[in-house]
Automatic annotation (TrEMBL):
Protein name: Glutamine-dependent NAD(+) synthetase
Reaction(s) this enzyme catalyzes, per UniProt: deamido-NAD(+) + L-glutamine + ATP + H2O = L-glutamate + AMP + diphosphate + NAD(+) + H(+)
Species annotation: Sphingomonas japonica
Gene, per the UniProt record: nadE
Binding site for L-glutamine: Y131, S208, K214
PANTHER family: GLUTAMINE-DEPENDENT NAD(+) SYNTHETASE (PTHR23090:SF9), NH 3 /GLUTAMINE-DEPENDENT NAD + SYNTHETASE (PTHR23090)
The keyword NAD is assigned to this record: yes
Amino acid sequence: MSRSHRFYSHHAQGFVRVGAATPAASVGDVTANADSSIALARHADCQAIDLLVFPELSVTSYAIDDLHLQDAQLAATDAALARIAAATAELRPVLLVGAALRRNGRVYNCAVVIARGRILGVVPKSFLPNYREYYEKRWFAAGAGLVGLTIDVAGTAAPFGTDLIFAAADLPDFIFHAEICEDFWAPAPPSTAGALAGALILTNLSASNIVIGKGRERAMLAASQSARAVAAYVYSATGPGESTTDLAWDGQGMIHELGEQLATSQRFDLATEIVVADIDVARLRLERMRMGTFNDAAAAAGHPETRFRRILFEHRPDFADVGLQRAVRRFPFVPNDPGRRDDDCFEAFNIQVEGLRKRLVASETKRLVIGISGGLDSTHAAIVAAKAFDRLGRPRSDILGFTMPGFATGEDSKANAWALMKALGIAGDEIDIRPAARQMLGDLGHPFADGEPHYDVTFENVQAGLRTDYLFRIANQREGLVLGTGDLSELALGWCTYGVGDQMSHYAVNAGVPKTLIQHLIRWAIKTAQYDGETDRVLDAILATDFSPELIPAGADGAIQSTEAAIGPYALNDFFAHYLIRHGLAPSKIAFLAWHAWRDIDAGQWPTGFPDADKVAYDLPTIRHWLEKFVHRFFATSQFKRSALPNGPKVTPGGALSPRGDWRAPSDGTARVWLDEIAANLP
């Protein structure tokens, strides 16, 4: 398959590659600093970096004190900027370099933006620290309030002020803002206004010295600003080589997006370094579009876009395949890091338990009725129910569990269902639905009633519907509440029987939990000893079973009905669902991300403890095949089931499908737009 197709380009998929540079600093050697800047720019060009951020005062060095006011030093700085611009005229990266510049009888601590040999603009530092170890007001004038101005620098007149954002005219969403060091320690960082004016990438040229704990503080501020401003934040602090007369430097470079750290430098490293990551600027734009509060904040601030100057430049992207400098999780609902995964499982489990506990109290129901199949979903619903009853101080025997074997129920799953009910101490019973199903199929004139092996949707749904019908009638009879077991993945795919079927219940406790997370929730319950040893043994056995609805008898070869053979791997379907429901990405971009996440078993991270036997890879044709199936099911055939969804708690930030919550859509919609987009944009 040709990799020249536009599909493989990160630019075509809405990414911008950014770098935080840590050059070898000096003590005021402008020539050496300019040489280092040029060398790093060339290196960045080889890495296809679009935007390269240098530290504060990178041209002059930061810790040179009164030398900032020496005319020879200032003149050398101006000449160095001209040399950097000329030397990088044919290079790809836009450069943000730090320099002290003269204007109108003052000296300003500035960020100088250079693209293709042209100085696009100069942003002065707004807030000058003059406390503890800082004395910047001794040398520099503050830039706060300076707007609409120009500055003569390196032989050209360039826009000057704190009212500048920069945008590529030929690469959508490549829009950035610059602030300098102390600016993002201020209560109201200038980058907030820059973001509200439209910048998606916020940058900080910093010379922050290091003391114990300051690295954590910087990371916290960068993460917080990227989350609050719905943006990316690129931070570059000066490293070794600066004067250590009274201070020391660690060279911390960081790249954050929406509160998540994408990349960070090796601090205290003597080597020059560029920390690189691909920013999903299209995702940031989409997030702002769906987050009304962001626009309200811009309105409350008097619409900063009306006060900012947008400086356009030609970036000249070639849309080549240069890979993807970004980790893409195979399981977006499941963190790779075991500590974070345990935290997420703790929260998810307790959200479900608390949701059910409140519903039991509010409904004043005496009992809970649940169908136990021996599969993952009903198992997880059962352990959530047991914990909810424990917290209420009520006996688990008031949970009425029913296994309801049909024409294809396996002995192993039935045995697991009984073992689970006994281990949990809930009331267990069995209802054989086959006589009732035969009667109904006969009444319908179905060929199966005459002995034919005719296994169509009606054959399956008669069984699924009878099970739910029994549960509701039992709930009527015994003053109970029917607990739904279906999960978020099944709702996304419409893999449930509508109405009198597993789509319906009194409370859908799993409706906000995707299939790929449920497995980890059960593993977490075992790991954290939520139940006793016998329960854990049963849970382990259930985790080892394949996904199957067990509605169609096994074939002559003994193979049981496979859910994933019919609807696709849940790992892929959950991947598709996350990026479509939560982020609204185009399906071709979802395919691009899935290809990078799943094409190579040995690439990237797997969740810690993930079984080696379950590790698989998917090529692009496979991803495309199941993505087309997914969007068809999601948009064209399944919404009516979600529109009539019972109550159930939202669990993951990746979204939920309740018509009263995250997802509202017409039940008679079409998948054509999404299928056409796949056809137009995939190889």
